Amino acid sequence: MIHQNRRKELLSQLDEGALVIVSTNPEQLRNGDVHYPFRPNSDFWYLTGFTEPQAVAVFSKDTYTIFLRDKDPAREIWDGKRLGVSDAPHALKADKAYSVDKLKTQLPKLIADATTLYYDFKPCTLDDKIIEHLAKNQYQSLAAYAHEMRLIKDDKEIELMQKSANISVNAHQLAMQQTRADLFEFEVASIFDAEFRKNNTEHAYTPIVAGGENACVLHYIENNKVLNDGDLLLIDAGCEVEGYASDITRTFPVNGTFSAAQRQIYQIVLDAQLAAIESIKPGVMVVKPHQIATHIIQQGLIDLGILQVGGDLSQFYMHGTGHYLGLDVHDVGAYQKNDQHRQYEPGMVTTVEPGIYIRKDDKINPIYWGIGIRIEDDVLITNNGNKVLTGALVKEIDNIESLMREK
Ligand code: GLY
Ligand code: MN
Ligand code: MN
Questions:
Q1: Domain count across the chain
Q2: Active site residue 219
Q3: What's the whole-model pTM score?
Q4: Same domain for 145 and 158?
């Protein structure tokens, strides 16, 4: 029902004769006969709830047609059950279902009466050739409408995001408790693999498990180095539940105790993150948390003599302070409206993830070299303020150190 309501709401924003065409992702070959695990296209998933590959949904105010794979007893022995054409109308609340092989012959009939087609050619490349041929200049992007809807999460989506957050929080806690010097980064990463699989979820993105200076490589995913006593460990990992992501980063000492220099830098990042979160409520510009975090980090680094007044902060903090979160880890939805920063609204979910990254540099006191710290939480905007979905995970220095002592 939820997907039916979403299709209805979407159509209510489009012209009377609109026809929406949305296809799922193509399957990706890994090698030989082996595919990567299939992940449905997020717009398609959001509007249909259908998770099989090779599917196209076509709907207007009058009718909903789904194209999907035929039943195939021989293939189903290898790949598992398929819904099939005859059960699809009931299961998916569609008026009609056809084999995806009939797309070429059936689509012209569906398109014939439409005034405007709403379709996005990327990243759903499955049937681009067919649709391009049929649609010739008569289409508009669906994304502008579907992505605005996806930006505001309904109760069911929030429930799934909270579940996703809880599983990830628990995995991060276990990682903090089990980390010690001389383990390899992949051994800590395996805690997340196991926890996510145990909960019937998977990684929402490739995790970053970065000891010491590896944390200064923002997209470090090798996760294959040994953890050294005295270093910090930065972990950015989150799972997805029915497609909904959580995205958490914590940074903590490999040996359970922050050094004086690590404490100083950590406290700046934490102060920046807490102040940025504090600012988030309906009506506040979405750029505000970044402005607040940047200001605090800049001042903190100046106070420690790491940054000169008027110096280039991007040397130490070179990414944004957050992004929308949902079916995509970097979720859809515009950050600006009419060339202005938009405001937060209830139902949006954003990450808040300031950081400081200090590489070896002759001009900086060596006690700070190799310190890379990010703290990231997932924040739901509520009617009056916000709720930190990942708030159960420790991040104050004392709390991290006592959790790690509990091993
Ligand atoms: N884990 C991806 C990000 O933090 O944006
Ligand atoms: Mn993030
Ligand atoms: Mn992250």
A1: 2
A2: yes
A3: 0.96
A4: no
